[in-house]
Design brief:
Layout: E1 2-6, H1 12-25, E2 31-35, H2 47-67, E3 71-74, H3 82-88, E4 93-95, H4 96-107, E5 111-115, H5 121-131, E6 137-142, H6 155-170, E7 177-180, H7 188-194, E8 199-201, H8 202-215
Parallel strand pairs: 1-2, 1-3, 3-4, 5-6, 5-7, 7-8
Helix pairs in contact: 1-8, 4-8
The chain binds 1-(2,5-dioxo-2,5-dihydro-1H-imidazol-4-yl)urea (2AL).
Length: 243
């Protein structure tokens, strides 16, 4: 099986780190094809970043489709352009936030989310609402650690992250924690060893969901919302999307 793992921000170091996590958990028969867009923000931390990153992300989905990959993963916790990517792709497209919520809800009565900047809290809350997981979520907490500071995280920032996870468990009643950034993928083992509840990284959750869907022969439904996009002309720099 070939899984296209897309980091929608332009930080190649972050792509490399999440690819290592993904490959370490994948079946030996699964190949992870990690990609980074050429154009866009170095990290995705607000709605503006997300919209700008989405165009390049969709180009990568199309590239993966041309290469015949068996699944696409959008490895950013805002699940940017997930619905649009599903319109484009035939193979399953999995967002790491939805994957994290799904896995957490199977092993815990309620889960907490611990994410990066406070300003991303409403975005995470909107996703929980959109996917129907609000009733399973004990709360979303921010660490105010910028996404790029997660690479080579310093001890003070790590302590902050662990402290918010503990607060989610002790104060909010979280029975599992979903990590709210793809950049936290490399920290899941250490956090799991140090905290008393399951810690879920959306990147590896997405890999395992992709493998399951592939083994079951399940593809994106092309009836209704994720059907072929509406055919029309696109102009200017988006002319390549004309259908
Ligand atoms: C993210 C993420 O996963 N990648 C990125 O650039 N920003 N998420 C976040 N909560 O800031």
């Amino acid at each position: 099986m070939r899984i296209q793992l897309i980091n929608p921000n332009t930080s190649a170091d972050m792509t490399h780190a999440m690819a290592l996590s993904a490959q370490s958990i994948a079946l030996s028969t699964t190949q992870i094809i990690a990609c980074t867009p050429e154009h866009g923000p170095k990290s995705i931390e607000c709605a503006f970043d997300e919209v700008i990153a989405s165009a390049a992300l969709l180009d990568l989905i199309e590239q993966g489709k041309q290469q015949g990959v068996d699944a696409h993963i959008i490895a950013c916790f805002g699940d940017p352009a997930l619905d649009a990517a599903r319109e484009l792709a035939d193979a399953p497209v999995i967002g790491i936030a939805e994957a994290g919520f799904q896995m957490a809800s199977l092993i815990a009565h309620c889960f907490g989310v611990v994410t990066t900047l406070s300003r991303t809290l409403p975005a995470s809350e909107h996703l929980l609402q959109k996917y129907g997981y609000q009733h399973k979520c004990s709360g979303v907490r921010a660490t105010d650690i910028p996404v790029l500071a997660l690479e080579n995280i310093d001890p003070a920032a790590y302590l902050l992250l662990k402290t918010e996870c503990l607060a989610a468990i002790e104060q909010d009643g979280a029975e599992a924690i979903v990590l709210g950034c793809a950049g936290m993928s490399s920290l899941v083992e250490k956090l799991s060893a140090e905290l008393p509840v399951p810690i879920i990284d959306g990147v590896v959750a997405a890999v395992k969901l992709a493998e399951s869907l592939h083994q079951l022969g399940l593809q994106t439904s092309k009836k209704g919302q994720y059907g072929q996009r509406v055919s029309k002309a696109f102009t200017g720099r988006y002319a390549h999307w004309s259908l």
